[in-house]
Design a protein that fits this description.
This protein has 134 residues and is mainly beta. It contains 3 helices and 9 strands; from the N terminus they run E-E-E-H-E-E-E-E-E-E-H-H. It holds the Pfam family RVP_2. This is Chromo domain-containing protein.
Length: 134
């Protein structure tokens, strides 16, 4: 089931699976909403299609508004699935390398641009050298 809702005043689409035991959030949306991220031990959960999603970050007690009702939910951060592209962008007239990241459980169209250095720090076990497009 898909519902429209708000996560800290940001409009979001919420996917509800009544058999799920955990909530997941795109790390870029967590950053955009200012949700504090707590590093956790590697956490794995089997999803409906039989695949396994692992996460090492959590946002706790996040206010979510769904159809006028407010909930405070915990979210595990979606892990990266693939690096689709890389690019050099200017910020304050200085070059910044960014990666186009597809997150597990999301389509390529939902990929987000992430700063390479911050991505590498957040996901140290993700082998960037093997995943970067040439």
């Amino acid at each position: 089931m898909r519902l429209k809702g708000n996560l800290k005043k940001h409009g979001v689409t919420i996917l509800i699976d009544f058999s799920s035991t955990h909530n997941f959030l795109n790390p870029s949306l967590a950053k955009q909403c200012g949700c504090p991220v707590t590093t956790t031990t590697q956490f794995q959960v089997t999803v409906a299609d039989g695949g396994v999603i692992s996460s090492s970050g959590k946002c706790s007690h996040v206010p979510v508004n769904i159809q006028g009702f407010q909930f405070h939910l915990d979210f595990f951060l979606l892990p990266p699935l693939a690096i689709l592209d890389r690019g050099i962008f200017k910020r304050n007239n200085c070059p910044v390398t960014k990666l186009l990241v597809q997150w597990q459980g999301q389509s390529k169209e939902e990929a987000t641009w992430e700063e390479c250095s911050k991505f590498a720090a957040r996901f140290p076990s993700f082998q960037l050298a093997d995943k970067l497009p040439s």
